[in-house]
Amino acid sequence: MKRLLVCALLVLAPLLLPAQVRSQTLPRLEGKSLSGAAVTLPDAARGRVTLLLFGFSKASGTPCKAWAAHVWPSLRNDAQADVFTVAEMQGIPGFIKSMVVGSIRRDTPEDYRSHFVPIFGDRTQWRQLAGYQKSAPDDAYLILLDPQGVIRWRAHGPYTPALYAQLQQQMAKWRPAGKR
Question: How is residue 120 annotated by DSSP?
Fold first, then answer.
């Protein structure tokens, strides 16, 4: 009986760990950036530690924009790190999608447009992956990928110096070897 219990615990242990600890490769995310370029993640981030800023509502655009404004200037010319904003827009009616995307494009700095990817499907998958909470629908959801595309850290909320410090620690921890 003890042996059966030990075997069961060994099999189930990875499922019982918090999402922050479990290693999971980012599923393939394909989209067209605001600059018009095709983007496939995690492929576009290979070899670099990469922050993904997910937004799941119109109001989440504000915290995502604040995060990008703080992170992008320091990563713009960093060959070992990157950042992408992913706006999930599944609920937008088809007849106004182009107007909404056009409005976002106009409000996004030109040098960041290739790092902003609107997506229009798989809402459930991306919410689950980001750790979405119904009590915080308008937060920015942060996912940090290591250089191989494995999720190493998750958080959500508005930009704060304390959360930014946590992000910086995690980014330093997962930078490619020899580049720290």
Answer: -
DSSP character at residue 140 = -
SS (H, E, C) 43-92: HHHCCCEEEEEEECCCCCHHHHHHHHHHHHHHHCCCCCEEEEEEEECCCC
Identity of residue 153? W
Architecture of the domain defined by 20-174 = 3-Layer(aba) Sandwich (3.40)
Tokens of 26: 């980012």
Is residue 82 within 8 A of residue 59, CB to CB? The reply is no
Q: Which of 133, 130, 170, 159 is nearest to 49 (CA)?
A: 170
Q: What is the pTM of this model?
A: 0.83
pLDDT at residue 91 greater than cutoff 90: no
The DSSP bridge pattern shows strands 141-145 and 49-55 to be: antiparallel
CB 51 within 8 Å of CB 143:
yes
* Pairwise CA distance, residues 41 & 30, whole Å: 6
Which stretch, 3-12, 37-46, 83-92, has highest mean pLDDT? 37-46
The residue among 144, 156, 152 whose CA lies nearest residue 56 is 156
pLDDT tens string 109-147 = 999 999 999 988 888 899 999 999 999 999 999 999 999
